[in-house]
Amino acid sequence: MKNLKLDIPKIIAYILVPVLTLVIILNIAVIIVCENNTEDFRNGYKGYENTDIFANECFNKIMRAIRIVDKEIKQKEVEKSIIYQDIDKFTEEDKIYYDSIYINPDPDTIQYNFYSISDYDVLVIIPDDIYVTNVEKTLNTDTKEEIKDYILSKEYFWKYDGESIETSIGKLSYEELVYHGLEQIQDSGYQVYIALKDENNTKFNAYMIAYDFTSSRYERAPFVATICSVLLIIVCIYIVKTIGHKKNEEGIYTNGLDKIPYEVIGIVTLLLLIFEFFLAWVFIERTVNMSLIMIRTSIMITIFLGFIIYITLITAIVTTIRRIKAHIFWKNTIIYKICKFAFDGIFVNLSQTVKLAVQYGGFIVASLIISLIALSDGMNLILFGVLVVFWYYVFKKILDYINKLEKVREHIRNMYNGNTESVLDEDELYGELKQVAKELNDISGGLSNAIEEATKSERLKTELITNVSHDIKTPLTSIINYVDLMKQEEIKNPKVQEYLEVLDAKSQRLKKLTEDLVEASKASSGNIKLTMENLNVKELIKQVGGEFEDRLKSRGLEVIESFPEEEISILADSRYMYRVMENMYVNIAKYALENSRVYVDVTKTNKKIQIALKNISEDKLNITVDELMERFTRGDVSRTTEGSGLGISIAKSLVELQNGKFDIYLDGDLFKVVIEFESIGE
Prior knowledge:
The chain is α+β, with helices and mostly antiparallel strands. Helices cover about 60% and strands about 10% of the residues.
């Protein structure tokens, strides 16, 4: 019941369409009839029998009767002339017979020659007192005079006896006919008697009902037709807008009818309409000659057929609109399926070069054909317009293809920049681009899943390192504290003192390692709060270099610094940049060749600040840059130094978090680190 209530407005709209259409047609018919008989309506003529329409019909019947008689007489004269050519060969009996037919026919002989004027009684008297009629011979219509009396006894009659006119039809009086063709009747030389056979017959009654209906609506017909036309337009707009939609549901819904090829729908609809219109026409045509009961039955059947015709039309229209809205109109056609079969079976398997050649060749051939037809027809403007439209269509298709190609390129660019959430709409593309879009979406989805898995794995690693470091830190603090307490005791045994020194060194190293692990984890995950500020690079390097001066001299390392004359600054976090430089100097102090030089160069080029640190490695650098940047990787593969292998990794992560760039270059035993930032000062 709920769905039925929701559909009531649409049901009402579908019912209103035929009702409003019928009202509009009837009122337009009223307007047309009124315009053709304006004088009758304005003069207030009451009844169909007092109108020009009825008078014109009677006059047409009179003229038709005269023409029929003329034709009959001419035929007789032709026959007479043919037969009388051989009059010399006639016997006396032949002459008597033919004279009785062509010269002096029996005046009492009634000839039935007006079958085409079935709704009127007609009597035409020609010279020589010969008459022609369609009045059936009875005891009361056995002679010419009786037929005259019979016709003049009718309610609606017209009589011309060769001199005067007598009639009960006001608009066929002598005065009226003087201006409307009386001379045609007079010139014929005939006497004419005519009357409506039965004023109660179905056709006459139908005309009277139609006239009364029309005259009663004469004044308001234009207004009713206008209002109903506006309402019909509104209802049609509402129907078109709601077709394919359901309340509280997105998109266009379709049904099984929409999946049938449109050509089949069109042919079936056309055949049904032809058959239905034929049946309706048969019943309408026969209605005028039926009895009242049969008329009512025929009207009911005609209304039912009209309803069937409406259902047929509205079904075809609704499925057409729904297909267009759902963008499946072209796809659900036999022509499309044939073209697609040929395209998928032949065209798709061709190379792009061959496809382009075929398409361009088709464009050239079509253009030439249209041009030749236009030129042969004197450069017909219509054909020239068709050619221009064709060129525009091809140009638009090329632009559309380029736009879709640009979407694919944009998607690839997004993937390249790390935006794997971007998805191409495959339904907007076609052909090769649709297949490319499908493959790119699969790749993008795979990358998104891989990145998500990698992020999840990295997060788990970070959590594991943080938890393990925290668990190690608590007992390690206790160990360090107890080692300090034991060192304060006066222990005489030198072995125990040596053990305490080793224990102290190793515990401090373990503490440093756990701190580096936590810091490396935070740096790689970006879980660090930065305080960005203007940082003087020269002061930073001098400060770090001063703190490491003694340590470097102890290994015979000579530091050679090179700075620009002007002050240079970068936007960075001073605390973490100090840690970066500290890690670099620690790395130099541990792994640089003793008694060698260390170069620290600061340069400024194209608003870029570069900090380069170079030294000669004490051990052979038989590893790659990527391996060296990995966590826990140290320059001495023997692992005899006290480094954790996290210094470079931490420094790289911290630099990149501050929008900088960190690179390592290896050339033999030469180890070079380059840190680059944007300059913020001149």
